[in-house]
Every structure is written in structure tokens, then in C-alpha cells.
Specification:
Helix content: 55-70%
InterPro entries: BP-dependent_transpt_permease, MetI-like, MetI-like_sf, OppC_N
Structural class: mainly alpha
CATH superfamily: MetI-like
Subcellular location: Cell membrane
Distance between the termini: 56 Å
Number of helices: 14
CATH class: Mainly Alpha
Number of strands: 0
Strand content: under 5%
Organism: Bradyrhizobium erythrophlei
Protein name: Peptide/nickel transport system permease protein
Radius of gyration: 24 Å
GO biological process, one term: transmembrane transport
Largest sheet: none
Length: 320
């Protein structure tokens, strides 16, 4: 048999991927994305922030988390374009001699990491409880929803402060910077699970009465398989919207906790910690220490919120 008669396995392997890409480009969501220039700009800015956070060790002129690279002689240097600016400190330095741009890049990594892990934790907890409450109903549903109702009476930041305070009271000064990061993730995760649970519960209560669920039950599939394999995929639209918006809320919550002194320490600052540090020197004339981290945080939150608003409209046929 000649080589020409053999099937092209490479081409066959690329065909499904090419088909998926073609369907994605022809979808209503991508069409809606291309029509909104504001959304495209927001997506570009968000991707830029993620790229800067990932490439921080390659871009930053110093590691602001390494005390050996900091010199107090370089403290409170003004931005480079001012009369008192010095190279290579483009955005100036803070009171510890940290390059502000480097601190923003590394702080951005902390803020995004805490936000993403917090959203994953809250989403996993809320989706699981929402599936259980909606599918089984009865006393389980009533218990989960009453807990959710009680938590909704408290602001998310108050729940986060409560969790943070309980953990600190249990472990005290034994918490290092990485442990503090885990505490923030736990506090944020326990603060935002209710939205996922209530949304998933409502969707599951609609989906479980449909024929495909009855058919899955008739062939003997266990409840966890039905919930995860058949019901959950039909609730992913609202979950994606909530996750996108909650990412911005999680970053804001982490920044608020750090600004209040209940978040990341000064040795491993996030954007919120940098703002708290700079706020102490604002009226002394060193405005750049607080201004640039604040601008970076505001632009990041705005771009993520714009993406969340677009995704909500794109996934809701009634709003098209």
C-alpha cells in the first residue's frame, strides 16, 4: 500500500480542534464581543495585568519581597520624570527603598492569586451546596438556604474580617506571609459562596424536572453523577457571570483587608498593603507611593467589571 493511501492522522487530529475554533468564532458570544470596543479594551487591559503579574520577575528592577535588595538610601525617591527622580526608579520608591513599579508588579501577583483562589473556593463550595439543596430539596434545602439567608444579613467584608480574626486569634504570631495568604483565601471564599448556591439551586430546581434527568434516573445513574454530568453543565452560564464579577469583588475585599491591616504583611505586600503604606506619606508630599498602586487597582477592577457586565448580557438572550 502506498503512503498516499494511508490516512492523514495529523490532519484528522487537527480537524476537531479547528472545528471547535471555527464554531467559537462564529458564535453569538464572540460576535457580541467583537461589536463592543469597550469590552475588547477591557479584555486587553485585563490580559495585560495578568501578563505583567506573570512576568514580574523579568520586568521588575528589584524583588521588593527580598530585604537584601532594598536600600534605605533610596527611600522616597520621586518618579523618574520629576526633578528629583533617579534611574531606574520609573515610578519612584517608598519609605523602605522599594521601587514602586516593582512593588506594584509583585503586589499584583498577590492580589490576583488571592482573588482567583478565593473565587475558586467560594465557587466550589457554593456550587456543591446549591446542587445538593436544589436536587434533594426538603430539610437539606431548608437548612442550607437558612444558613445562606443568615449570612446575607452581614456584609461580605464583615464575614471576611470575622474569619480573619478567628484564625489570627487561634494561631497568633505563628502565621507567616504564605499562611496569611491562605487565611485571606479562606475568608474570601466563605464570604461569597451564597451567590453561587442560590443561583445554582434555582437552576437545578428547574432542570431536575426535565426529561433527561428522569431518563438518567431510570437507567440507574447515582445522584452525584446526574448532578455533575447532566445538571451542572446547564447552569454554567450564570456561574461564569458570577465568577467574573466576584473576581473583582474578591480583589477589592483583599485590598480592603490589607488596607485595614488584616491582610498581607508589609514584607510581602499586595496592592491593598501598598495603598495602606502610601497613605501614611500622602500628606508629606510623597503622593506617588499611594497614587500608582491605587490607579493600578482601580483600572484592574474596572476592566474586570466591564467584562462581567458584557458576559452577563451576552449569556442572557433576553438582553441581546
Amino acid at each position: 500500500m502506498s503512503d498516499a493511501a494511508l490516512p492523514d492522522k495529523t490532519a484528522a487530529g487537527h480537524a476537531p480542534a479547528a472545528g471547535l475554533i471555527r464554531r467559537a468564532l462564529d458564535s453569538d458570544i464572540f460576535y457580541s464581543f467583537r461589536r463592543s470596543r469597550l469590552t475588547m479594551v477591557a479584555a486587553l487591559i485585563t490580559l495585560l495585568f495578568f501578563a505583567l503579574a506573570i512576568a514580574a520577575p523579568l520586568i521588575a528592577v528589584q524583588n521588593p519581597f527580598d530585604p537584601s535588595e532594598l536600600q534605605l538610601m533610596n527611600s522616597r525617591i520621586a518618579p523618574l520624570w520629576t526633578a528629583d527622580g533617579q534611574s531606574p526608579f520609573l515610578l519612584g520608591t517608598d519609605e523602605q527603598g522599594r521601587d514602586v513599579l516593582s512593588a506594584i508588579l509583585y503586589g499584583l501577583r498577590i492580589s490576583l492569586l488571592v482573588g482567583i483562589l478565593g473565587v475558586i473556593l467560594s465557587g466550589a463550595l457554593g456550587i456543591a451546596l446549591g446542587l445538593i439543596a436544589g436536587y434533594f430539596g426538603g430539610a437539606i434545602d431548608a437548612l442550607i438556604m437558612r444558613i445562606a439567608d443568615v449570612q446575607l444579613t452581614f456584609p461580605a467584608i464583615l464575614i471576611a474580617l470575622l474569619v480573619n480574626g478567628i484564625v489570627k486569634s487561634l494561631f497568633g504570631n505563628r502565621l507567616d506571609a504564605m499562611s496569611m495568604l491562605g487565611v485571606l483565601v479562606l475568608a474570601i471564599g466563605l464570604s461569597f459562596w451564597v451567590q453561587y448556591a442560590r443561583t445554582v439551586r434555582g437552576s437545578v430546581m428547574v432542570e431536575k424536572n426535565k426529561d433527561y434527568v428522569a431518563a438518567a434516573q431510570l437507567i440507574g445513574l447515582p445522584a452525584p453523577v446526574i448532578m455533575l454530568r447532566h445538571v451542572l453543565p446547564n447552569t454554567m452560564g450564570p456561574i461564569l457571570v458570577i465568577a467574573t464579577i466576584n473576581l473583582a469583588l474578591a480583589i477589592i475585599t483583599e485590598a480592603t483587608l490589607s488596607f485595614l491591616g488584616a491582610g498581607m504583611p508589609e514584607t510581602m505586600p499586595s496592592l491593598g498593603t501598598l495603598i495602606r503604606i502610601g497613605n501614611n506619606y500622602l500628606f508629606a508630599g510623597e503622593w506617588w507611593i499611594v497614587a500608582f498602586p491605587g490607579i493600578a487597582l482601580a483600572v484592574l477592577i474596572l476592566s474586570i467589571n466591564l467584562l462581567g457586565d458584557w458576559l452577563r448580557d451576552a449569556l442572557n438572550p433576553k438582553l441581546r
